[in-house]
Structure formats: structure tokens, C-alpha cells
Design goal:
globular; two-stranded antiparallel sheet; 14% strand; eight-stranded parallel β-sheet; 10 helices; alpha/beta; single chain; oxidoreductase; 10 strands; TIM Barrel
Length: 273
């Protein structure tokens, strides 16, 4: 198993289980980061209009020489781009910046109250028009998903949420599993805030891996798609080198036990929309 290991979305589209997140990478550094990731073997890149680096991502994809259909690209509609017409216009802006004819996954970035249903209607059109191979949401809790799906014609295929061992989001994960929505983890390493945790250190020593690799493997064995961010080629390589060992059931329980419901980002119900 490798970078080509995928998980199937409910419409049959396959998403690579490990990708590169590019949040807070400025345009120049994102180009180099995406180029090095693609050279290493990554085939899944996750960006967003809010990151203001879609141009750099697009240039790196083009310059890589890798066939477009071999790379899985995600981008997202930001909060001030929500609403039906706004989201359609935002999507076209993203396509233009990326210099692509389509994206593989388009997400509603946050559940903006009073707006996300109209935004979703736009995503359904984008999907039907073949401009996005799959559509989904980000930072949606079960009550947002219930509300959305009460009127949606197409069910979300993915939900990208903050998820790491100190924020395991069990309720949202279980809800999504019941509704065949793939979970993606953003900030999967918890911004490297607790890689020195004794349990992670113990498991890293046991498996001759780094704490970051232990977490990414935990994601993989939990059925979670993960997008660790790094501008360094050596770290990118390390983050994805997780297919040559296996965590035991006991190891997995130890990592699960680290949960403190501790966020590094805002709570979706408390975000300043």
C-alpha cells in the first residue's frame, strides 16, 4: 500500500487516504511544497479559496507533468462566498485560479447559518454539471448535516473536520459512518502541540516510527482520510510513510484515550460568521 491507497466515496469516486494540506502556505512556498509532494508520490492536494494560494497549487500541478486525472484536488467555498449565486461564482473563480476544468472534491468550508442550504444547492448544480467529481462539507456537526440532508437532493460525500487524538469527534464520525459520508481530518497532528505525549512517544518507540507517523497511521486504521500539512519534503515523506506497520487494537485504544475534546480551531457553533 502507498500513496495510491484510496477510500471510496458513496458515488464511487476514490480519494487517496493521505493528502497534503496547504493552509497558511503563501503562494511561493505552496508551489514548492506541492511540487515536492507530487515528486514524492502524493496524489491528493487540499486547498481552499480562503487560503489564497490556489494559483500556486495550480501552477505546481501543471508543472509536475503528472496527468490531471491522476491527481485528486479539493478546494472549498469560504463563508463570504456562500449563497446560491455567490457559490457558483466562487467556484468559477477557484477553477480559474487553479487553471483546471474540474476539481475532484468541492466543499462548503463552514456551516454559515442561513446560507449553507443555498450553497449546497449550488454544489449540487456544480456536481451535476460535472465540474466537481464529488461534493461535501467541512466543519459540519450532526445537527448541521441533519438540517442539510432534510432538503438536499444529493447527500454529502465527505465531511472534513478538525480531528486528532485530542479531538476524536466520535459522535460526528459515527453519524457520518451511518450516512456513508467519508470523514477527512484537518489539523490531523493537532498543530504538533502534543507530539511529546508519553503515549505517542511510547508507541513511536515500539514501532520505530515518529509520533506524527503514529497519528497518521491511527487515522488510516480508523477509516479517516488525512491531510497533514508540511512545506518540507523530508516531513512530507515522513508523514506518508505509514504503510509498513500496523497498530494493534490495544495501541489504537491508547490513542483513542488521549481525547480531551480539545480544539486548535473554532467550534462550528461558535464561529464568528
Amino acid at each position: 500500500m502507498s500513496f495510491l491507497t484510496t477510500k471510496e466515496l458513496h458515488n464511487g469516486v476514490k480519494i487517496p487516504v493521505v493528502g497534503l494540506g496547504v493552509y497558511k502556505m503563501i503562494d511561493g512556498s505552496v508551489y514548492e511544497a506541492v511540487k515536492s509532494a507530487l515528486d514524492i508520490g502524493y496524489r491528493h492536494i487540499d486547498t481552499a479559496s480562503f487560503y489564497e494560494n490556489e494559483e500556486g497549487v495550480g501552477r505546481a500541478i501543471k508543472d509536475s507533468g503528472i496527468p490531471r486525472e491522476d491527481i485528486f484536488i479539493t478546494t472549498k467555498a469560504w463563508n463570504d462566498e456562500q449563497g446560491y449565486d455567490e457559490a457558483l461564482a466562487a467556484f468559477q473563480r477557484s477553477l480559474d485560479k487553479l487553471e483546471l476544468d474540474y476539481v475532484d472534491l468541492y466543499l462548503v468550508h463552514w456551516p454559515v447559518p442561513g446560507k449553507y442550504k443555498e450553497t449546497w444547492r449550488a454544489l449540487e448544480k456544480i456536481y451535476r454539471d460535472g465540474k466537481a467529481k464529488a461534493i461535501g462539507v467541512s466543519n459540519f456537526l450532526p445537527h448541521h448535516l441533519e438540517d442539510l440532508m432534510s432538503e438536499a437532493e444529493i447527500m454529502p460525500m465527505a465531511n472534513q473536520i478538525e480531528l486528532h487524538p485530542q479531538l476524536t469527534q466520535v459522535e460526528t464520525r459515527e453519524y457520518c459512518e451511518r450516512h456513508n459520508i467519508v470523514i477527512e481530518a484537518w489539523s490531523p497532528l493537532g498543530k504538533a502541540n502534543y507530539l511529546d505525549d508519553p503515549i505517542l512517544q511510547e508507541l513511536a518507540a515500539k514501532h520505530n516510527k515518529t509520533p506524527a507517523q503514529i497519528i497518521v497511521r491511527w487515522d488510516f486504521q480508523s477509516g479517516i482520510v488525512t491531510i497533514p500539512k508540511s512545506v518540507k519534503a523530508s516531513r512530507q515523506k515522513e508523514n506518508a510513510d505509514i504503510f509498513d506497520f500496523e497498530l494493534s487494537a490495544e495501541d489504537m485504544k491508547k490513542i483513542d484515550s488521549l481525547n480531551q475534546d480539545k480544539r486548535t480551531g473554532p467550534h462550528p457553533d461558535e464561529f464568528d460568521y
